[in-house]
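Now for my pick.
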Amino acid sequence: MKAFFALCCFLSAAFLCPGLAAGEWHTDLEKAQAESLRTGRPIYILFTNSENAACINITRTIFNQKKFQDYADKKLVLMKADFPTTVHLQAKHIAEQNAKLRAKYGISVFPSSLLLDANGKVFVNFVEKDGSPEKHRRKINEIMDFDPPKRYTEYLDGFVKKYTPPEPEVKKAVAKADDKAPAKKPAKKPAKKPAETSKVEEETATIPDENAGSPLIPLDPEGNFQDWLKASLGEEAVEAEKEAEEARETVEKEKEAEEAKDAAEAKEAAAEAKDAAEEAKKDAEEAKDAEAK
């Protein structure tokens, strides 16, 4: 049972973390480029610091969410260039590759993202597209105010549709060949197990893989694995919503502080203008008295 519980935790992490299930993130540029060439999808490259609060927040709120991952599986090749503060956590060749990419594309803030073709040509630099790092930050904060995965996916899709090339001819040929290929014979049904099984056999029961008939995921003997997984995902969703709410409150406080600062500056400027007007009036009166004398 301990082995089963550990595997359940691993599977839950696979659903929640990019690179383990839907929305896999490449760390090797050559592999990302190869997939881009094979699929015809553009590369979405994220420059991030996995130990930075802002990067962690956007990852949990957008990139780890199923809606974004499902979209990315169909439309993007995901590539992550990480610059962790704890540098020894990263392989040397990956760190060197990321440093070259940062210099090549002039990345100055984290998180930043680009849309590239398979040869590394920039389709979109999202920070530059929004005008400046500050304006890009405000754009992302607006997106994260409500349903971030949906709104960010829609934001990306406008660019992805524009820059996704036509389906490669090779892929069309492969699809045509598959259509002409003879249908595969259905796999033979496994023999029925005896009605009585031992406790050990119950704990190692498996769900058959529909594609190959091989074991895939260990089942809880009580059959409540799906309920347990849904509960775990629900807890993560609640945590993500809580973090999103905190981010919204932070944005509101910053906005209120900026408005208060602007109002104070306007009031100060008005007072200075009034003082200047009074001074000019006084000077005019003095000049008039001097002429009268």
Observations:
- Strands lie at 25-26, 43-48, 77-82, 112-116, 122-125, 206-208, 215-218.
- The radius of gyration is 29 Å.
